[in-house]
Amino acid sequence: MTRAFASVFPTDFLEPWKLSDVVLVVEDQKFHVHRSILAFWSPVFERMFTSEFKEKNNDEIPLPGKKESEIKHLLLMLYPSLEEKQVTKRNCYYLFELAHEYQIDSIARKCEALMVTMVKQRIENDVLAMLIYGQKYHLKTLISTCIYEARRLKSVELDVYNRHDEIEPDNYLKIVKGIIQRLETQCREVRRGSLKSLERVSQSLYVHAKVKNNEPIPSFSRRPYKNDIVMSRTIGERLDYLLNDDDKSSGNVQCMNLKSVAEELIAHKETIETLP
């Protein structure tokens, strides 16, 4: 290399600088870099420069199939003296693939960490595509995160997914189990909430029936129904009491009598109790 150093800290690597001793050729663009820096970060480049590869003593090393902009971004991350470049949604995939190929573990880990964050925060909506990507490169953290987040899917969404066959069987089974567990949890919450509502309604109707039938009701404190005969009754006992109410004296046809209401509530109670 006979040209004078262009600058101390270049941002484009287009000129020789600071004892740069090798040139990477990408899409007819030449990047002036250092063998020692590349070898420090990448075992692939280290072997290239120290073993009996044809590139060992070459001043120029072509990187066929690579994109100029992507290699430049990778170099900007490898040189700590330059402005540090961040891994973003836009660049993390090609940076990861370059880091994977050249075994630059630190950059690969940064890229995977961002992918995991994007899945957790639902920045990447296609969680199954992310799972398939993780499977391709055996990214355990990304795979486990995608499986966990895929529990929010509906089973039909999983069945009709256009890359359904690319999901590994074990991972597919874990997703299905996760969906079932999520639904069971939701059912338990619905069951618990519905029974609480039914508890309150049956209490109110039970007291209403007692008053209507001129039956004695204990006097209530500031906490009505607490520790008295109303609270001591189960939902079923209160509804059974209402079933015996045959009062049809009300001429308002828009108002159901208590027996009819009880029949409706018993049917709802039976449905609720079928939930897991």
Automatic annotation (TrEMBL):
Taxonomic superkingdom: Eukaryota
Coiled-coil ranges from the UniProt annotation: none
Record-annotated BTB domain positions: 20-79
UniProt xrefs under PROSITE patterns: BTB
Gene3D superfamilies: Potassium Channel Kv1.1, Chain A
Pfam family, one: BTB
Protein name: BTB domain-containing protein
Species whose genome carries this gene: Porites lobata
